[in-house]
Amino acid sequence: MNWPEKVTIKEVGPRDGLQNEKVIIPTQRKIDWINQLSDTGLSYIEATSFVHPKWIPQLSDAVEVAKGINRNPDITYAALVPNQRGLESALEADIDEISVFMSSSETHNLKNINKTISDTFPVLKEVIDSAARSRKSVRGYVSTVFGCPYEGEVSIEQVFKVCDQLFEYGINELSLGDTIGVASPRQVALFLEQAVKRYDIDRIALHFHDTRGMALANVLKSLDYGIKTFDSALGGLGGCPYAPGASGNVATDDLIHMLHNMGIHTGIDQGKLIGAASMMQRFLEKPLPSHQMAVYNAQ
Amino acid sequence: MNWPEKVTIKEVGPRDGLQNEKVIIPTQRKIDWINQLSDTGLSYIEATSFVHPKWIPQLSDAVEVAKGINRNPDITYAALVPNQRGLESALEADIDEISVFMSSSETHNLKNINKTISDTFPVLKEVIDSAARSRKSVRGYVSTVFGCPYEGEVSIEQVFKVCDQLFEYGINELSLGDTIGVASPRQVALFLEQAVKRYDIDRIALHFHDTRGMALANVLKSLDYGIKTFDSALGGLGGCPYAPGASGNVATDDLIHMLHNMGIHTGIDQGKLIGAASMMQRFLEKPLPSHQMAVYNAQ
């Protein structure tokens, strides 16, 4: 049980969660919710996305949200940025950290970004360089690390090729995404066995989706390898675009609950987190799918 | 990754699952369902319970179910038995293996069995002795191993006291139950660290509930300790009596999915298992809560 004593949770609910919710949440409610999230002890919140509204209508109010929230100085507020134009909006809204994204599998990258992997690199390089000039750190999301909805398994070499390039461009942290929730603990172990030797472990985050129910088992296996940063979405908000009704991001409240019960600190207040999840349940007028919320809603 | 190559799943859906479902399933449908379960590759099915119908109305047709199902000679059909009278009914129905049960915490035992722990021992001893005379093996369920809804944490010493006694009486296998789904992987590790030294690992099964979402992570940790037998209920049937709406037994289909994706054999056909879960969904006229069924239902 050589687990880290402290783990950092990066809350992606306002972005990765909401972008998969059909019901459009009014801007002021998003602001209220992020403000409530800011009061839970979270140190990192991905607040929105500057991807063109045509692709993610839910987050078309990115500038208003970014400018409207109260900035807690202890929290990093991040936003997803696809290209130079998105970066300019993010900089204008004074986002603390920029997230860029691409896939490790060619077909998913093509379908998601409309570019080949090699054509995506220069676009991201430009964003990363510009962000650096504006003294903003950049986080790199790599999707389909453990499997692609179109290609199936992705080779570790292929994943490393993409990750290596992003690190070379100067990203601050790499978020390794199990986009469709297919990773098993064995696959995570085989991957991390190599990854922790290749990269600085302090710059690696794991981003699990719970589609098949294995997310917390995969977190546990990652902890065995010393991983200290995980992405999650409060309440399991969002679901899976590839299987409507199935789970999306691992739920922050489920993740925190397990970590705390393992004696691992996160700095986050579970009660306040449940309060923030309740607020979103009221906005969406439906129960959120996490296990903690099921127990809470039953009480 | 020193995991077992093969794991045995003990399907408890027809008993632990159904006993927590409010809608009464007609006897013939239970029989049809168990017959379908018998065709999935499962080697062990807990088919019903001979607890007095006053306590579990859903399973008041235990004799009819036990006599009505087709017996696959490769499968052990078990049933829960609370006392000598229940044993007689089970023997009359020619059940293959008898399950006895008690709690490791005094208050849960008192509320569940209406006896103190010390008063429960002679009742179970009588059942185990009688079963032996009829050449039936006995499985012992110990509840609240990782926490009690009334007393909180239960000491390992207290759990061992109960387990030791049951082994001394001659049970064939011990099923260690996380009755309310509170165990964390750390707690499982601390417990198994001692348990695998104290008992024959081939005689220990883990019985996790997924109330807080940690069941598969706890299975993973148990595999690290070489545990090779797990109880589960297909589709996550049943839910939690202490928190209606929350998860009950870990879902067989979720468990199998993870094990197979880790390269661990179970002998069970995932497709047939999903077929059997679909049948129960039709009987209950509601979706079953497992992750695999959520994905299946979305397709």
Give the topology, please.
Two copies of one chain form a homodimer.
Chain A: E1 8-11, H1 13-17, H2 27-37, E2 44-49, H3 62-68, E3 76-80, H4 84-92, E4 97-103, H5 106-113, H6 117-133, E5 137-143, H7 156-169, E6 173-178, H8 185-198, E7 204-208, H9 215-224, E8 229-232, H10 252-261, H11 270-284, H12 291-298
Parallel strand pairs in A: 1-8, 2-3, 3-4, 4-5, 5-6, 6-7, 7-8
Supply the key terms.
homodimer, alpha/beta, eight-stranded parallel β-sheet, TIM Barrel, 299 residues, globular
* CATH evolutionary superfamily of chain A: Aldolase class I
Q: What's the helix-strand series of chain A?
A: EHHEHEHEHHEHEHEHEHHH
Quaternary state reads: homodimer
Helix-and-strand structural type of chain A: alpha/beta
> What is the overall silhouette of chain A?
globular
**Averaged pLDDT of chain A:** 96
Largest sheet of chain A: 8 strands, parallel
Describe the structure.
The structure is a homodimer of 299-residue chains. Chain A has 299 residues and is an alpha/beta fold. Chain A has one domain: TIM Barrel, CATH 3.20.20. Helices cover 43% and strands 15% of the residues of chain A. The first copy, chain A, has helices at 13-17, 27-37, 62-68, 84-92, 106-113, 117-133, 156-169, 185-198, 215-224, 252-261, 270-284, 291-298; strands spanning 8-11, 44-49, 76-80, 97-103, 137-143, 173-178, 204-208, 229-232. In chain A, strands 1-8-7-6-5-4-3-2 form an 8-stranded parallel β-sheet. In chain A, strand 2, helix 3 and strand 3 (76-80) form a beta-alpha-beta unit. Chain A is globular, with a radius of gyration of 18 Å. The model of chain A has no long low-confidence stretch (mean pLDDT 96). The A-B interface holds A 1, 3, 182, 184-187, 189, 210-214, 216-217, 219-221, 240, 243-247, 251, 254, 257-258, 261-263, 290-292, 294-295, 297-299 and B 1, 182, 184-187, 189, 210-214, 216-217, 219-221, 240, 243-247, 251, 254, 257-258, 261-263, 290-292, 294-295, 297-299.
